[in-house]
């Protein structure tokens, strides 16, 4: 099938769903929902749980669509991304932009009408931070792009917290700090695995600009830092012994993965570390939630 033929096809719902990066959004929603439950000792109101989750998901999906739009030239070069809907011309730029606008409006309307204006404002700032500041500026400007831009992706638990309380708490910011510290070792492991793709696309990810070995050192150091940060909820009295146990076990395993990555020459160790980092974050927040209701 020629490129012209492909471009005449009508997008399917699967194409639009793929533009939203559903796996990434699901992980974000897990942390947002945990943020909701940690904000109260009571049950989260059902309307806040449903409408808050939908509003946050719509905003995250809109940011993902804009990311696809901005990265389409690089996506066409990289093996990992060349089969995305926009590079394959299954979805046109206009269709993607209208879809992102629709999701943004839907998100803001949902959060303002059924949750609260603060959550809507913070969601919009996060959307702009990821799709605009990170994707359009930082990603191509500095190898520290994921460190600085990671703040936008770290906000879901704060959004969940504000959805329930209507206010910002130091405990909610601590949850943001955990994800912010987790993001560099998580993403740099993927960047090592796909370093040739980033070289070809001329995107200055850390392993491209400073080399794979230097990046492995940074991953290891950030994982040590994450180990300490993950213990802070217990240290400040936010969580109890159950969470402490979970954080110690999970952080030790994650550290083991990054130590093995540092000294291993096996080509698949980086992607194994990346995959475990997703499991780590999901389980860490699960322990936060379990501990919250058993303290």
Low-confidence stretches: 1-8
Query: In the CATH hierarchy, what is the architecture of the largest domain at level 2?
Result: Orthogonal Bundle
Question: Helical proportion?
Answer: over 70%
- Tally the helices: 16
State the total count of DSSP E strands: 0
CATH fold descriptor of the largest domain: Tetracycline Repressor, domain 2
Quick one: CATH superfamily of the largest domain?
UbiA prenyltransferase
- Main pleated-sheet profile: none
Beta-strand fraction estimate? under 5%
Mean pLDDT metric:
94
Describe what you observe in this structure.
With 295 residues, the chain is mainly alpha-helical. The chain has two domains: 1-168, Orthogonal Bundle (Tetracycline Repressor, domain 2); 169-295. Helix content is 77%, strand content 0%. It contains 16 helices and no strands. The longest helix is centred in the N-terminal third of the chain and has 25 residues, at 46-70. The radius of gyration is 19 Å and the shape is flat. 45% of the residues are buried.
Summary, kept brief:
By secondary structure, this protein is mostly helical. The chain contains 16 helices and no strands.
């Amino acid at each position: 099938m020629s490129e012209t033929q492909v471009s005449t096809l009508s997008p399917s719902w699967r194409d639009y769903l793929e533009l939203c990066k559903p796996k990434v959004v699901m992980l974000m929603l897990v942390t947002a929902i945990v943020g909701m439950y940690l904000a109260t000792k009571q049950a989260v109101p059902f309307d806040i749980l449903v409408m808050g989750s939908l509003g946050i998901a719509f905003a995250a999906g809109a940011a993902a669509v804009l990311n696809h739009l901005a990265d389409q030239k690089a996506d066409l070069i990289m093996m990992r991304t060349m089969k995305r809907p926009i590079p394959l011309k299954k979805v046109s730029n206009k269709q993607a932009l209208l879809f992102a606008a629709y999701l943004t409006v839907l998100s803001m309307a949902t959060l303002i009408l059924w949750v609260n204006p603060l959550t809507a404002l913070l969601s919009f700032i996060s959307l702009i931070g990821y799709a605009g500041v990170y994707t359009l500026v930082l990603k191509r400007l500095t190898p520290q792009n994921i460190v600085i831009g990671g703040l936008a992706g770290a906000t879901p638990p704060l959004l969940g917290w504000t959805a329930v309380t209507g206010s910002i708490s130091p405990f909610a910011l601590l949850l943001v700090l955990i994800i912010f510290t987790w993001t560099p070792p998580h993403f740099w492991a993927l960047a090592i695995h796909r370093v040739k793709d980033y070289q070809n696309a001329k995107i200055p990810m850390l392993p491209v600009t400073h080399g794979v070995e230097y990046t492995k050192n940074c991953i290891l150091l950030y994982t040590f830092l994450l180990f300490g940060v993950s213990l802070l909820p217990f240290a400040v009295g936010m969580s109890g012994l159950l969470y402490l146990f979970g954080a110690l076990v999970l952080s030790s395993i994650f550290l083991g993965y990054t130590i093995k990555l540092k000294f291993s020459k096996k080509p698949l160790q980086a992607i194994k570390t990346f995959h475990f980092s997703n499991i780590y974050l999901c389980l860490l927040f699960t322990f936060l939630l379990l501990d919250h209701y058993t303290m």
